[in-house]
Amino acid sequence: MSPMELDLDLLRLEALKEVSSVESLEELREVEIKYLGRKGLINQLLKELRDIPSDKRPETGKLINQLKVELSNEIEAKRSLLEEREKAKRLEKEKLDVTLPGVSLSIGRLHPLTMIIERVEEIFRSLGFTVVEGFEIESDYYNFEALNIPWYHPARDSQDSFYITDKLLLRTQTSPVQIRVMEKTKPPFKIIAPGRVYRRDQPTARHSPVFHQIEGMAVDKDITFADLKGTLDTFAHALFGEDVSTRFRADYFPFTEPSGEFAISCIFCKGKGCSVCSYSGWIEILGCGMVHPKVLEIGGIDPEEYSGFAFGMGWDRLAMLTYGVNDIRYFLENHPEFLAQF
Amino acid sequence: MKVLYSWLKEFVNIDVPCEEIARKLTMAGLEVEELEKIGDDYLIDVSIPANRGDCHSILGIAREVSALFEAPLELPLSPTFKEIGEGIDIEVLSPELCPRYTLRFIKGVKVGPSPDWLKNRLELVGIRSINNVVDITNYVMWMLGQPLHAFDADKISGKVIVRRAYNDEEIVTLDGETRKLTVDNLVIADEKHAIAIAGVMGGEESEVSFFTKNIALESACFDHISVRGTSKSLGLRTEASIRFEKGVDIGITKFASDIATEMILKLCGGEVGKLNEFYPIEYEPNKIMFRPDRFNKRMGLSLSPREMESIFTRLGFKVEKNTDVWYITPISCRRDISLEEDLYEELVRIAGYDKIPSTLHERIIGVVSPPPAWEKRKIVRKKMNSLGFSEVITSSFIPVQFENYFKEFYQRPIETVRVINPLREEESVLRSLLSQSLLTLAINNVRWGYNDFSLFETGKVFFKNEENYVEKEHLGIVQSGRFIYSWDREVNADFFLLKGILDRLFKGELSFIPAYYSVLHPGRSANIIYNGEIVGFIGEIHPDLAKDLKLPRIYIAEIDIESFSTEFFKTGLIREPNRLPKLKRDLAIVVPEDTPSIKVIEMLKDVFEGILEKYEIFDLYKGPNIPEGTINLGFSLELRAEDRTLTQEEIEDRVEILKSRLIDVNGRLREW
Predict the structure, then answer these.
(1) Rounded Cα gap, residues B251 and A226, in angstroms
(2) Total structural domains in chain B?
(3) Tens-digit pLDDT profile for residues A56-65
(4) pTM confidence score
(5) How far is CA B592 from CA B526, B587, B621, in A?
(6) Mean of the per-residue pLDDT values for chain B?
C-alpha cells in the first residue's frame, strides 16, 4: 500500500465516522463541504494526484473517485434519515389539542314568526293564492265601516283600537286588505295578506297589543262554503300533519255570512283534553266564512254573480302552538336565549 | 250568559245529557265556555256573539236547544189581570230612541227579602239579591231577555217622560255615582228631573227600598245604538245595557211586564194598577226572499226543501213556500236576520257545519307575482342569515325618548306618528326608523347580560310627510361585541365589519359619505348613497349616549329597502368565466393623510378601467419612512382583460399615467 493509499483508507474511515455521528442537517452540510466541497479533502487529493508517479495515477484516481461516490451516497442516505427525523419533530411540534373548542361562529337564524309565516305562505301559494300586502295605518272606513262594522257595532268592543286621528287608526285586523283588493282587482282572485295588526289590549301571556295575522280571500263565480272547508282542511293537514282532525263550527263575524270558526284536534293531547286546549280537545285556529254580500257590494262586486270566502288567523298563535311557546310576548321581546333555539 | 239547566228545561221539553246540549250549542255558534255541575243541576256558561242579543235569556237559549234537538218549546202563558184604578201617565218625547214603552202601576206591595229559591237561582247565575221586587225584575230579565226597572212610585212627581237629557243634566245612579249627561243620552224623567238613564241604570232617588209601598214597573224597548253610546260614554255597562245594545225583542215588552207583575203579586202582594203603553208603530218583521237552490249551491250542500222548512219552523220563522223562491219571516227577536245569506247561516248552523263537504275550488286562478317588498324582504333575510346575522322582530312602538334619534336621515323635518290613546304614555310613538327599535333591543340585550350580538330586522317605519302618512320598508342592522371568536382570535363588531356586510348585501354598489347624526359618533358615521340618493346610514352609537345607556360600542346601520328594485337583489344574466391569466400588481401610494381613500380608489378605477378586476387595500401606514402628514396606502390589484392576455408593458404604461394623475392630489407612487 502506498502512503497515498494508506491516507485514502484513513480518510475514508474518518469520513464515514463523521457522517454517521452527525445529528443535524447543518452538521451534515458541514461534513459534506469538508470532504466533497469544492475545496474539500477529496478534491485536494485529486489535485495531489499530479505529485504521484504517472503509472500509479489511474489506479489511485480510480480509488479516489470510488471514495467520492461512496461518501456522497452515505451523505445522501444520512440526509434523508435526518430529514425524516426533523419532519417528525416538526409535526410533533404542530400537534394540537383536538379537544379544545372550535371557533365560535354565529348561524344567522330566522325569527320564529318568520319561520311560521313562510310555511303558511308556501302552503297557500301552492294552492294558488297570491300574496298581497296592506297598510298598517288604516282608515276607520277600511278597518271597520267597509267590513260591515259601523261605529255602534258591539263587535268593536273586542277590537279596541289605537287611533292616530279621528278617522285613522292602526288596523286591528288584516281584513281591510279584502276591501282594498276588491276595489283594485276583478274577480276571480285568491289572495293571502300577512301582516301586523294592533289592538289596545293590556299585554298578557295570551294578548299582545302588537301581533300578526294572515288574511285569506277567494272570489269567483261559483265559490262555495265547501271550497272554504276544503282549502282550510288542506292547509291544516299540510301544516300540522295528516293525522290531525279538523272541525268547523258556527261563529259570528260582521263581514262574513255564514261565519265559522275552524279548529284542529289538539296536537298536544291528540284530542283527549289538556290545559292547552282547555280540556276541549280542540284548538281554535281561525275565523272564516263566506264573504258578506254587503262587503262584496262595498268592494264593487255583484253578490248575485260572485261569491267568495275569507278567513283570518293569528300567526303568533300558530307559532306558539308549533313551538310550545307559552307567552306571546316572547316574540317581540327577542330574548337571545329564546331566539337561539330556532 | 249563565244558564241553569233546570231553568232551561222549564222552557224546552228535552231529556239529553247536558254535555250533549253544550256540545251542540257550541257547534251552532253559542260557545259553552264552562259546564259546571252543581248538585244534580248544571250551570252552563254560554258566550253570546255580538249579533245574538236574543240569546241573553233562558228563553233564547231554549229556542236554540229546541231547534237543535227538535224538542218542543214551552212558552209560559200570558197572564191576565183585573186592573184596579189609574196608572201613571207617560209621555215619550223621543220616539226615535224609544219605539215602545210600558209602565205599570202596582199598589201596596210588601218589599222584603226574596224567598230562598229565587235568591239561589239569581246567585247561581251571578246576580246579587237585593229585595223581592228588584230580584223579580232581574229574574224576568234573565228568563226573557227583557230588562225591567221598578221605580218607587211615590218618588215620581207627576207623569213619566222619556226624553233626551239636557246638556250637563245630572243624575245620581243606583251605584251612588253622580253622572253628567248630554243630549245624546236618553233619560226617564218625571216632571222635575231625570229618574233613570234609559236602558242603563236607574236613579238612586227613586230606588225601590224596604219602605217602598207603590211601584212603577217599566218595560221598554230602547234604541240599541243610543244605549250603546250612553253606556260607552259613561263607562257604565250593566246587564240591561248589554241586552239593549245587542237588541231586545220589541215583541216581548208587554209580555215580560205581565210575567213580572204576576210574580210580584205572588211574592210581594199588592194590587195591579193600570199599564200605560206607548207603541205607535207595531213592529213588523221583514219578509226575506230565500232561494233553496242558490242556498245549496253557495254552501256546496244538498239539503232537501223539507229539511230547510223544518229548520226554519223550529227556529220560529214563518215559511211561505213556492217552487224556486220562498219568503221567510223571522221571529221578532231575531233582529240579526235581514238578508238571504243570514238565512243560509241559520240553516247550516242548525243542520251542522259537518254536513258540508270539503272540496277544493278547481278553477285555476292566475297566480300573480307577490308584491316587491315581500320578495325583497325574503331575499334580504336569506342573505343576512348567510352573513351570520339573526333576525329579530320588534314592536312598532318605541320609547318616547328615542323619538328623534337618527332622524337626520330624512334630511328634512318629518313628523312622528303617534297614537292618541296609548296604553301607556311611554308607548305612544311609532318608530320612524328601525334603529330606534334596535337600540331599544340592544339596551335589553346588554341588560340581560348579552354583549355579543349581530342582529337585523326588516320591517315598517312610519312618518308623516306634510299631510300624508307614510309606511316604508327598512332594513336595520345592529351589532356589538364579538362576531367570531375563540381562545386564539377575535373578530369584533366595528364600523368596517358592518360596512363589509352592507357591501356584500348590496353588491358593492353603495357609497358612504361622512354625515352628522346627533346620536352617532361624530367621526364614525356616514350616510349611505345609492344612485345618487341617500338611502341609509351607518355608524357607531355616540360614546356619550352609550355611556348614558350603559352600552358597550354599538354599531348600527339602516337602509330603505324600497329604494332598490327587486331586480337589484335578483340574479340577472351571467357572463362566461374569464379563463385568461390574472396579473397581480401591488402599489404603494402616498397621499396627504386627510385624503379620503375613495378619491384614490376612484382614480385607480379610472386609470385601470377595463382591466381592474379586483382591488384590495392591504396596508395603511403612517410613520417615519414617509413624510409627516402623509399616509401610505398599500393596494393590491388583480388585473385582467376580457379579450387578451395583458402584458407587463401595458400595465406599466398605466402605472405611469397613475403617477402623473397622483400629482393632482399631492400624492405619489412610492417605489419599492
Answers:
(1) 37
(2) 5
(3) 888 888 888 8
(4) 0.88
(5) 21, 16, 12
(6) 94
Same domain, B60 and B121: no
Residues of chain B neighbouring A233 (CB-CB closer than 8 A): 358
C-alpha cell at B92: 215619550
CA distance B476 to B84: 81
**CB-CB under 8 Å, B228 with A154:** yes
The per-residue pLDDT for range B15-40, each reduced to its tens digit, is 899 999 999 999 999 999 999 999 98
Give tens-digit pLDDT for B104-141: 999 999 999 999 999 999 999 999 999 999 999 999 99
The residue-averaged pLDDT of B301-323 equals 94
Q: Identify the closest residue of chain B to A100 by CA–CA distance.
A: B487
Same domain, B45 and B187: no
Residue labelled with grid coordinates 213580572 = B260
Integer Cα distance of B455 and A19 in angstroms: 65
- A114: chain B residues, CB-CB within 8 Å: 381, 391, 393
Calculate how close chain A gets to B203, using CA atoms only, in Å.
25
Q: Are residues B270 and B338 in the same domain?
A: no
B339 touches chain A (CB under 8 A): yes
**ipTM of the modeled complex:** 0.89
CA distance A43 to A38: 7
**pLDDT band of B424, cuts 50, 70, 90:** confident
Q: How far apart are CA B349 and CA A151, in angstroms?
A: 27
Could you tell me the pLDDT band of residue B503, with boundaries at 50, 70 and 90? very high
B166: nearest Cα among B222, B93, B100: B93
**What CATH architecture applies to the domain A112-339?**
2-Layer Sandwich (3.30)
Is A226 in contact with B357 (Cβ distance < 8 A)?
yes
Please tell me the least confidently modeled range out of A69-73, A121-125, A173-177, B667-671. B667-671
DSSP A97-128: -TTS---B-------HHHHHHHHHHHHHHHTT
Pairing assessment for the beta strands A130-131 and A189-198 based on DSSP bridges: parallel
Report pLDDT for A214.
96
Instruction: Report which secondary-structure segment, H or E, holds B640.
Output: none
Interface membership of B490 toward A (CB under 8 Å): no
